[in-house]
Structures are given as C-alpha cells and as structure tokens.
Amino acid sequence: MTDDSRTHRRGFLSHLGEGELTDLRAVGRVQTFERGARLMSERQVGDRVMALLSGRVKVIGVNDAGREAVFGFRSAGDLVGELSAIDGHPRSGNIEALERVEALTISARDFLAHLERHPRVALVVMRLLCERLRDADRKRVEYSTADTVGRVAARLLELGERFGEAAPGGAVTIDLPLTQEELAGWTGSSREAVARALQTMRELGWVHTARRQITLYDEPALRARAG
C-alpha cells in the first residue's frame, strides 16, 4: 500500500462525540499497566470494561495443555471486556499488555448505564462487535483452506494495516513485540511451521524479520499468497 492508501482501523473512542466521551471519562478511572501485566483474565466475571488510551495488548486463550491461542491485538482507542459486561458470562480470554498501557476502566454497571443514556454509542458497540464476528468468520474459512505460509501472510498483512508505518522503497515496518510462538498461536500452527514460513518469505524477499520488528517488502505477493 502507498502512504495515501494506508489507513488504520478506527477504534471505539474515535467514534464518540465530545459529550459522549466526556460522559464516559466521568464514570471511569485511568489505570496504567506495565508490559506483561494482565488487564483481564479468562473465566473472570465481566465486572468492568476498558477503553485503551495508549499502548497495545494481546487477547489470548489458553488450552488445557497450557498452549496459547492468540485471538487478536488491540490498540489505543479500542474497547476490551465489553462482551462479558453485556452478556454477563465469564471472560473467554486473557488480555495482556505488550507494552506500557494506559486504560480508562469503567465498571460494567456504569458502562451499561452509559449505553442506555447514549443509544448512538450502543449502536457503535454493536457495529464493532459485528466487525469482530465477521473477522472471526473470515479466519475460520482461512484456517480450513490455507496452508501455514498463507495464514502467516494474512496475519502479517493484518498487522501491517493496523500497526504498519511507511518505510523507504514502499516497504512497511511493523514495530510490535510479537514472538514466533504468538504468531503460531494466532495462525493455528506450530512454532516450527511458522519459522519455516517466515524463512520462505525472507528467501523470496517478501519480508525481513528482526527483534520486535517485521518489515513487509512485497505486500502484493503476500496478498496473493494469502488468497
């Protein structure tokens, strides 16, 4: 993508009007979490939601064998924990800070009251949940039809669209502390398979990987490979 065409997905907070945002801030409190801290835990009662003000987090689940499955990443402006607050069921995943995070924490009761006072905000939440559902449907199709290289290519493109910054020569740099284990959990693959997929992409000149950084050199090739 070119500089002009690259757009970052808009988060929950960016959809709020000034009055709606002021009202939301009035019922919440700002908390700070250091890298590696857990903001929310799987099976926890949904007693609060958080609107991320800065920093990025990962959403993960852990199976009985202790292996992580990455559900996705959230960044400044995004809302987390809203599903459990709305339906009253325990949380389905852990949310952990990838770097220092500031979040506006709101009790589930106050959040639901805010939605009742602001029907337009409730519609925004509904649309964002629909967006996540559609994304989950796309990934289910992808997992059943694509090989590891294709799935890794798709996830790298997703990271580029959300967190990428333009680099010389039309490249896109992604600064995100993402391990091969996390990428494996996100693509439903083994770490070894992901390592081989990245090696293949490096040899083809599509990507370059370094500590805490991935550079995409050939997005059209990655997109074609992702199907």
What does the secondary structure layout of this molecule look like, with pairings?
Elements: H1 18-26, E1 28-33, E2 38-40, E3 48-54, E4 57-62, E5 68-74, E6 79-80, H2 82-87, E7 94-97, E8 101-107, H3 108-117, H4 119-145, H5 148-163, E9 165-166, E10 172-175, H6 180-187, H7 191-203, E11 207-210, E12 213-216, H8 219-226
Helix pairs in contact: 3-4, 5-6, 5-8, 6-7
The helix count comes to: 8
Name the CATH superfamily assignment of the largest domain: Jelly Rolls
* Spatial strand order of the main sheet: 1-8-3-6
Radius of gyration: 18 Å
Percent helix: 40-55%
What is the total tally of β strands?
12
Shape: globular
Please give the alpha-carbon distance between the first and last residues: 17 Å
User: Roughly what is the average pLDDT, rounded to an integer?
Assistant: 89
Could you say which structural class the secondary elements and strand pairing correspond to?
A: alpha+beta
- Uncertain segments of ≥5 residues (pLDDT<50)? 1-8
Report the biggest beta sheet as strand number plus sense, adding barrel if it closes: 4 strands, antiparallel
CATH topology title of the largest domain: Jelly Rolls
